[in-house]
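FAQ: What does a ligand-bound record look like?

Like this one, built around coenzyme A:
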Amino acid sequence: MTKKINAAITGVGMYVPDKVLDNKYFESIVDTNDEWIMTRTGIKERRILEQGATSDLAAGAIKNLLETTGTDPEEIDLIIVATVTPDMFFPATACLVQNKVGAKNAWGFDLSAACSGFLFALDTGSKFIEAGTHKKVIVVGADKMSSIVDYTDRNTCILFGDAGSAVLLEPNEDLNFGLQNSILKVDGSGSEALHMKAGGSAMPSSHETIDNKYHYIYQDGKAVFKVAVKGMADVSVEILEKNNLTGDDIAWLVPHQANLRIIDATAKRMGLPKERVTINIDKYGNTTAATIPLCLTEYYRDGKIKKGDKLVLAAFGGGFTWGARYLVWSMD
Ligand code: COA
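The answer part, i.e. the structure of the complex:
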């Protein structure tokens, strides 16, 4: 009989571009101010990739992961890229990333679930490990949000930034550690409130779509906020209940970083103090698929996430997509 295994995160990596856009910069381009942005979102600054594409953010994160874990790129079996800003429609960004990092023996694909992309991809990647068919799977969340942001729209331009961040999944035999279980959800009736209108088969690019600014993010912020706050808190409580846990058991809530008020509401519903919530929205803004692995990487490298820590990862995003994942950190 084959031994039962699960998947564990055995490496992390990140790449953020050098160029910083702070709130002062936005005061100079739209009618806004630092105080409004800080109190309504919690964002101080974000990073912008001036040269290159999403595959560069993803490749940068993976190279950082490979270097820090001493992994040869040729050992990688599979690369899953979670993104809503692929370099192009095809080939998949995963193909471009595979080539850029020299992962000669890996296959790969893109996964589109907006701000929940990393959680959806983590679940997907873990299945290949659990099936016993793959030994080293990289899940990377990367988005060049600046490529789809309208910098004349104060409602959205202040929110987003560019980044890539990755985790390595490997088989794990001590089932008390590693990825435990998750709850993932979709509600396509929410697509009206958050989407990019043109460029796809529903509305191919034309002069008219460009004139109408249909190649940028459209978000009904208020409507999304309402469902996001409830969706992320509900699913985070649901994952606790599913595992017979309470907030007291959780070392870290690792939430998607879209808005500090949504994060605070989720932590409150879970009964978690602020000190046990990973936050870096102030430095990077909303980097879509990259926010959760960025938090994991930074908090692990700072020595804050430790072996044995029980973590809940939670996200809400366009689709609507949302979900939560329970895991026990297995790296020293
Ligand atoms: N600076 C100053 N004022 C701004 C502004 C800015 N950058 N952006 C919007 N405003 C204004 C609005 O125009 C509005 O003015 P009005 O009342 O005269 O119309 C006012 O501020 C309040 O707007 P509102 O949309 O109610 O603000 P909010 O408190 O809901 O905050 C968001 C806006 C976008 C920060 C918030 O709605 C949000 O975070 N939404 C969810 C984001 C999310 O989770 N997305 C899913 C994952 S990507």
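Follow-up question: can I read anything off the structure? Yes, for example: DSSP finds eleven helices and 13 strands in the chain.
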